[in-house]
Automatic annotation (TrEMBL):
This is 5-carboxymethyl-2-hydroxymuconate isomerase. It comes from Rhodovibrio sodomensis. GO terms for molecular function: isomerase activity. Keywords: Isomerase, Metal-binding. InterPro entries: Fumarylacetoacetase-like_C, Fumarylacetoacetase_C_sf.
Length: 233
């Protein structure tokens, strides 16, 4: 491994950090894992049978995060940008082969997030059997609110999750409807990767995903965690 104190030959990228609700210190981000089709009604609306699928994961990049309320620029190369409201899990400890019954001890906190998706590019990738990155891991594709410590709110496993676009309800569900619960996701991910402090897990979205346009205003909510509001620029 190279000397971490050595000067870089080009400017080093800035570390990615999320604000922590009610604190002056911030949460450093390592990786972002996303679980696909984790609500049965969303799996059905996307043309899949939730009873026949094991969990699967994809990734976004840490610098895809758009922190806090504000404006998300409409991305390039798409005419079909979709919203997906999600509960995000922030890990305070990592490890491998984490047992389900210990998994929540690795959680630092939770946040409200959006998995914004270039659905047309994702659809093309699916047809060709290619990775999803062009549809999922683009600039500003993960708007996210502050991390709320689990020490303050506990570990939400039920309660409403919803998204309004321009004041009209688009998505509505309950955290209890997740097929794979947070402890199970942590256990399974830890058999595939060595999880690290600072890892984020986006836990899937309920039914009702759909397109947004420039000028739309999005308001998402997760019970017990908080709200996230952004505008599409």
């Amino acid at each position: 491994m190279s000397d971490p104190t050595a000067e870089t030959v080009i400017p080093a990228p800035r570390p990615v950090r999320l604000p922590v609700a009610g604190a002056s210190r911030v949460f450093p981000v390592h990786r972002i894992y996303c679980v696909g089709r984790n609500y049965a009604d969303h799996a059905v609306e996307m043309g899949h049978d939730p009873d026949k699928e094991p969990p699967f994961f994809f990734q976004k990049n840490p610098d895809n995060l758009l922190c806090g309320a504000g404006e998300m620029p409409y991305p390039t190369a798409t005419a079909d940008l979709h919203h997906e409201i999600e509960l995000m899990v922030a890990l305070g400890a990592g490890g491998r082969d984490i047992p389900t019954e210990r998994a929540l001890t690795h959680v630092y906190g939770y946040a409200v997030a959006l998995d914004m998706t270039r659905r047309d590019l994702q659809g093309d990738a699916k047809k060709l059997g290619r990775p999803w990155e062009v549809g999922k891991a683009f600039e500003h594709s993960a708007p996210c609110g502050p991390v709320v410590p689990a020490a303050r709110i506990g570990h939400p496993d039920r309660g409403r999750i919803w998204l309004d676009v321009n004041g009209a309800r688009r998505q509505a569900g309950d955290l209890a409807q997740m097929i794979w619960k947070v402890p199970e996701m942590i256990r399974i991910l830890s058999t595939l990767f060595t999880l690290q402090p600072g890892d984020l897990i986006m836990t899937g979205t309920p039914a009702g995903v759909g397109p947004v346009q420039r000028g739309d205003r999005l308001h998402g909510h997760v019970a017990g965690v908080g709200d996230l509001e952004i505008a599409i620029g």
